[in-house]
Amino acid sequence: MEQVRADVCVVGAGFAGLAAARRLVQAGHEVVVVEARDRVGGRVWNRELPDGTVVSAGGTWLGKGQDRMFQLCRELGLEVYRQYEQGDHLLRLDGVNHRYHGALPATGPKTLFALGLALARLQLMTRRLPADAPWSARGARAWDARTLGQWLSDPRNVPSATARTLLGSTMNLLFCADPAEVSLLGALTLARGGGGFGYYTDTGKTESHLVDGGAPEVARRMAAQLGPRVHLSSPVARIAHDATGIEVVSPSLSVRAQRVIVATPPVLAGRITFDPPLPTRYSHLLQRVVPGAIIRVHTVYPQPFWREQRLSGQTLAPGSPVPVTIDQTPRSGRPGVLSSYAFSTGALHLGRLDPARRREIWLDALTERFGPEARHPAQYLETDWSSQQWSLGGMIGHFPPGTLTNYGSALREPAGRIHWASTESATLMHGLMEGAVRSGERAAQEVLVALSRARHAAALPDRSP
């Protein structure tokens, strides 16, 4: 087993871990990054189709307010370009396709009023949350005892059946989980990071730009700057920690360091053996922040034929096994690429089917919205994030009822020499690549302060008799 020493060990080479390592190296510290996968990027991933087309199969889009990601692109020499938004979006309800433009579908004044009312009520609750401690808000315990699904299903909150259907489908998308599994407080915590649900539900804000070469290229270039400090295919099994330092152990590598930043999805951090065991609130939190289920499919066509129909490629179909699509055609405009998704229980159901049957159902759903051309893609690529050993789901972990008010204080607070980073722990842009980067930089700053204090204490004269 290779043995190395460093000032800091970072576990995980997703955006959170890479951002933390980059900041520490810039400050002049020796850093080792240990990654379980054979690639960097974590929950962002570039996949290549047989014809050579490269598609981003995980985190993909940038949007308004995601300043650190845009800055990273500039620093790393990557260009961004606007998401294709020309033409109409489609809403499919009760077997009928409805064209619309803008953030909200034209479903009649009653539905629009109910949607606006529900989002305004959620916004009022969201504003009451302290960004760094939502569990301390007045009313937090009552909200944490209730699910988002219960709140949405109450006609007093959403006084329209169609609006309830639309909001339920949208929340399914955000958490990749049934709203009945998500704490209302946990949902509000995500919204707090972006300024409200209006941000996360408006693709014109959250999905306004793509990275030329794909978002994973940002991670690859960050890792290239770190060079041999990054060790791939090294899943961490054990972290020993005491008053003198830490030891991070994988099957092929042992790292001795002063501090460690665990920058993995919480569900994976919970599978690491800590010696001695973590305090109860940490171990219980890691067991409870669970990822949802998502299958993403890329269908590739010679050209984006939907644009000729004056369609943007963005669709929402709440009753469909494939409820969401979006145009992911490369900057060149060729070939045409549709990205489509199944979430939550729908993804779990499709995942149990024979692949040929699943493909048939998937293409049937696309054909209902885009016509017969959609049935015959030149390429078809599935990515089931629940089957990925080092993700176990996607795209973020959600907070079930009771989690934040009982264990939330352990979300960011270091456990001795152990620090935490992940998009789930971000106070701004929670759940996005931007949130992951910010969480990594926050953890790095915590470590820098701790190392500085340790150096200062070591430099003080010994006053013992």
The CATH topology of the largest domain comes to FAD/NAD(P)-binding domain
Radius of gyration: 23 Å
Number of H/I helices: 17
- Per CATH, the class of the largest domain reads Alpha Beta
Which homologous superfamily in CATH is the superfamily of the largest domain?
Answer: FAD/NAD(P)-binding domain
The overall average pLDDT, rounded, is: 95
Helix content: 25-40%
**Overall tally of domains:** 3
Level-2 CATH architecture of the largest domain: 3-Layer(bba) Sandwich
Class from helix and strand fractions: alpha/beta
User: What overall form do the CA principal axes indicate?
Assistant: globular
Termini, distance in Å? 44 Å
- Uncertain spans: none
User: How many β-strands, per DSSP?
Assistant: 24
Largest sheet: 7 strands, mixed
Write down the oligomeric state.
Answer: single chain
- Estimated share of beta-strand residues: 15-25%
The order of strands across the largest sheet is 9-8-19-20-21-18-22
Can you walk me through this structure?
With 465 residues, the protein is an alpha/beta fold. It folds into three domains: 2-42 and 215-278 and 415-459, FAD/NAD(P)-binding domain; 46-86 and 207-214 and 293-387, Polyamine Oxidase, Chain A, domain 2; 110-202, Guanine Nucleotide Dissociation Inhibitor, domain 1. Strands 9-8-19-20-21-18-22 form a seven-stranded mixed beta sheet. A hairpin with a 2-residue loop joins β12 and β13 (245-249). α1 (15-26) packs parallel to α17 and α3 crosses α6. The longest helix has 27 residues, at 433-459.
